[in-house]
Design brief:
Length: 419
């Protein structure tokens, strides 16, 4: 029995060294999770054996347990690198159509624009509503694909929003000859600004807005140089009034509807009507100089995809040649009731088993899922110092079991040589 005990110890120590060696070999592997050998005492049971009288028959390797503690996260600056900080796995579709899971976020685009791993697995994510940019989490995750040169059609401008200040100290543009001293009339536009808007074909058309102070100290008339094709020349397209605090009134201020006909745009041989809603809710009238802080409009010309980035929430944002950035998909993360039950299949991947429980797909920062860090990778969680110490311990255990076999051999030799 002594030989069997020592032999089981040798096998266990050798298995432990295998696990330690595997950990050390993968100390630089992205997203690698270390393992440890777990041992259990082996006993021989016999009918009628008294408690405390049985001698063990050695040791068994009860399990090789994976350690899913967090690895260090290192910034890489690569747009398509992403690391998980916390719970969760990236979802993959393998070439054979089955699903797998990984913590390695070093993704790449292939020649067809498919987002893949180094082992040619497709990255799964949720499609998005292109209007709202929100992930359609009620659907099944699908492979993320962004064909090179993907086109974005033109969009006509429908909304314009201004953030600006009209100087409350401005005089009535018509002048006031009766004032002391008399106030001369100013040019038609007290203040003005301009921007480009787009028709349904993506042709840019200039839109000029100018503001004329009236005799009412809190009122301004709004004009546009393009309104004369649809309204009588010189007619304002609307008015702005302010309360004594310098805020537009009434509240909430409805947007101003403007119809533009771009027939006088020399850059557009095929003019199209543009229907706009101009939001003046962030226009103020304070006693400071006129300033335009921001102008936003929602139209754009056609463009093609020029770049791709992964955001912290897993949103995959495409940049187009027309300057538009749009969310095209969002990475899905998987969680399991028992990650220890996942089976490692190599290439930084795991597959689910009955012991791992059912996969639950979701978005980063929801439920128990962790957060994402873009432009970074999670490194191996192997602690080299601890592994080297464990290796020395396993080596001592191996030597000790070998010595036990040698000792038993000497005892048997002594018995055989008795005369």
């Amino acid at each position: 029995m002594s030989f069997q005990q020592a032999l089981s110890g040798l096998n266990a120590a050798a298995r432990n060294l295998d696990v330690i060696g595997h950990n050390i070999a993968n100390s630089g592997t992205t997203g690698f999770k270390s393992s440890r050998a777990e041992f259990a005492e082996a006993m021989a049971s016999a009918a009628g054996s008294a408690s405390g009288q049985s001698v063990g028959i050695g040791v068994n390797v009860a399990a090789v347990s994976q350690q899913f503690k967090q690895g260090d996260i290192t910034a890489t600056g690569n747009n398509l690198d992403v690391a998980i900080n916390g719970n969760g796995f990236f979802m993959l579709r393998q070439p054979d159509g089955t699903e797998a899971y990984t913590r390695a976020g070093n993704f790449k685009l292939d020649k067809d624009g498919n987002l893949k791993t180094n082992s040619n697995d497709q990255i799964l994510g949720f499609p998005v509503d292109l209007t709202t940019g929100k992930a359609l989490t009620g659907t099944q995750p699908v492979p993320m694909s962004f064909p090179s040169g993907q086109a974005m059609p033109a969009k006509s401008t429908t909304q314009v929003a201004l953030t600006m200040n009209l100087d409350a100290r401005a005089h009535n543009a018509a002048g006031d000859p009766a004032a002391t001293p008399p106030v001369a009339a100013t040019p038609r536009a007290t203040y003005g600004t301009s921007l480009e808007v787009f028709d349904s074909q993506g042709v840019a058309t200039p839109l000029s807005l100018y503001f004329v102070k009236t005799a009412n100290p809190n009122e301004w008339e709004i004009y546009t140089t393009l309104d004369e094709t649809v309204q009588a020349p010189g007619s304002p397209v609307g008015k702005l009034t302010f309360d004594d605090a310098g805020n537009p009134t009434p509240q909430p201020l409805p947007p101003l509807a403007i119809v533009l006909n771009a027939s006088n745009n020399p850059n557009n041989p095929n003019p199209a009507t543009i229907n706009l809603n101009v939001d003046f809710a962030k226009v103020t009238q304070f006693g400071t100089k006129f300033s335009v802080n921001d102008i936003k409009q929602d139209g754009y010309t056609a463009g093609t995809m020029t770049g791709l980035n992964i955001s912290k929430d897993g949103s995959i944002v495409a940049t187009y040649s027309n300057g538009v950035k749009r969310t095209e998909g969002q990475l899905s993360l998987a969680s399991f009731t028992n990650p220890q039950g996942l089976a490692s299949v190599g290439d930084n991947k795991w597959v689910s088993t009955p012991d791992s429980g059912v996969v639950v797909a979701g978005l980063a920062q929801t439920g128990t899922l962790g957060t994402l860090q873009s432009g970074a990778l999670e490194g191996s969680n192997v602690d080299l110092t601890a592994e080297l110490v464990d290796m020395m311990t396993a080596q001592r255990a191996y030597q000790s079991n070998a010595q036990a076999i040698k000792t038993q051999d000497q005892v048997f030799s002594t018995l055989v040589n008795l005369r």
